[in-house]
Model the fold of this input.
Amino acid sequence: MEIMMLKALLLAATLAGLAAAPASAAPCRDGKGKFVKCPDKAPVKATKCKDAKGKFAKCGTPGAKPV
Done:
């Protein structure tokens, strides 16, 4: 009896997990709920820069280049 309850509980948990997966992978929608093309991701900014001597420098300084 306990084994059947355990199997039923495991089956219910598995089905709930499978039903939630498509909701998290939903495509882009507009304010009215219509499907639209997803916007492109913003380019990643360089967070580290080096100066002419090869030392790390602030990215706004003259001569600093992104790594």
Residues 1-37 form one domain. The helical segments are 2-24.
